[in-house]
Amino acid sequence: MTGGPLHLLGRGPRSILDSSPRSPLGRAAALLAASTAVVLGLSGCMLLAPDDGPVPPAGGLETADPAAIGDVAEGLRTFYTQDVRWESCEGSFSCATIEVPLDYTDPGRDSIEIAAIRADASGEAQGTILINPGGPGGSGFNIVKDSLDYVTSERLREDYDVVGFDPRGVNRSSAVECYTDAEQDEARQETYPAEASPDELLDLMTADAEEFADLCAERTGELLGFVDTESAARDMDILRALVSDEKLNFLGFSYGSQLGATYAELFPERAGRLVLDGAIDPSLSSENITLGQARGFENALRAYVADCQQGPECPYTGTVDDGIRQIQDLFAAVEREPMTAEDGRLVPISTFVQGFILPLYDNGNWPTLTQAVSDALDGDASTMLYLADLAAERGPDGTYAGNSTAAFLSVNCLDYPMTSDPLQMRTDENELVSASPTFGRFLAFGGVTCAPWKYPPALGPAPVEAAGADPIVVIGTTGDPATPYEWSTALADQLESGVHVTWEGEGHTAYGRSNDCILDLVDDFFIDGTVPEDGVRC
């Protein structure tokens, strides 16, 4: 057990050479786990364009079509009928801020803000598609602002307005606040004494987790207890109504699949065309999710090393197993003696592993990982730190673009009961190491993070059925390390109307980064309502 637990989820990176992070990996300290949901090209804004009638000019007010509001509780009606002012923003986009209840069980108590961004359809819009890039903690605002042409096709953008939003607790919306930028830098450079015993290490991790939980509670206030996925899904229904769509059309990547499935379970009659890509099995515990990801990333590592060894300048010699052992030896060396990057920042093992894992989300980024490892073997950790900075959304000036790490942890601590019993966590660690000799121990002891959280879990994992919903498309990638393929089959089987689509490829998620087969199936579903054949493979 060294460093702190890395928690991995979210939409993977597009190209490591791009400038904007798209999937938060974790942090160095015991709590600052990583959510691969904001690795490259996210960002946030949000709001949906109306389904019926013309879009008003920038600065105009929109009021929901009464037919789209439907039957809602009286205490919620003011949120569903609020006027929304769209203002021109970020060049060619429109942005708006909407109000949603802090607490859906007591909607009159207080309200919070959700930030949204809209890209108008290039043709005549038949409706709106809401996008979530993953996380939890990924910015739907930024994904639309920075990477719209990556996560949607030109054909789709011709027929639909596209709205990205920052879920409650995230970035531009009413947001979780924990560390300052300087404090986050300090935490990412933290090291634990090499001579510390396992019990002493656990004590240090626990102390860090308690400090972090105290800061989050102090700086965020009561919002911290209401950033769960179910509340975020209820926010989406208000968004749906405010763009005058009678049914929600939704494209969710990674954690976004859980958000979409939760919406369908809550509002099956209002679930329209939903595509859940890189699906999560909502019935799994936090511990089983981590175990599945441990296996997934070990498999991705093996595929990466095998691919590297086919090239002329691969730093891994011998067999694939030999190459993996060389990577494990490199990790051990950094663990014994943290490296220092060119900018003078320390690169402890937790940050080093953060940077290493990031390119495994997309096989197109494997050459960048090879360069980072080659540089590290030559004594320079700067490229690996650059990758870790991308994962953490840190810019060269030392500022962090969002709050993805804090939001990731805050949502997960409310969504998942986690064991913090030391004996059980050590048993889990052994299972993780068995599943992933390379990464397993860096994924262990996640329960430490949420044990001191000031708010208990809201619900917990459970299968979803969404009885009565229209067909829901669930996509799985056979070589997905962050959301293993079997999770997509499990979700599709649970959903009464689930339709399963497979991409036979490497990396995290499929739509926008795979092939024309996936692209056409998704576009035909959204545009024409053509439901893919269940079990189709691309």
User: What is the approximate shape?
Assistant: globular
Stretches with pLDDT under 50, minimum 5 residues: 10-58
Intertermini distance:
40 Å
Number of strands: 14
Portion in beta strands:
5-15%
Count of helix runs: 18
Biggest sheet, in brief?
Answer: 10 strands, mixed
Rg, alpha carbons: 22 Å
The total domain count is 1
Helix content: 25-40%
Q: What is the CATH H-level superfamily?
A: Alpha/Beta hydrolase fold, catalytic domain
Please outline the helices and strands:
Layout: E1 61-62, H1 66-69, H2 77-80, E2 84-85, E3 87-89, E4 93-101, E5 111-119, E6 127-132, H3 140-151, H4 154-159, E7 160-165, H5 181-188, H6 198-220, H7 229-242, E8 248-253, H8 255-266, E9 271-277, H9 286-308, H10 320-336, E10 339-340, E11 346-347, H11 349-357, H12 366-377, H13 382-392, H14 404-415, H15 422-435, H16 447-450, E12 472-479, H17 485-494, E13 498-506, H18 516-528, E14 536-537
Parallel strand pairs: 6-7, 6-8, 8-9, 9-12, 12-13, 13-14
Antiparallel strand pairs: 1-2, 3-4, 4-5, 5-7, 10-11
Helix pairs in contact: 7-8, 9-10, 9-15, 10-11, 11-13, 12-13
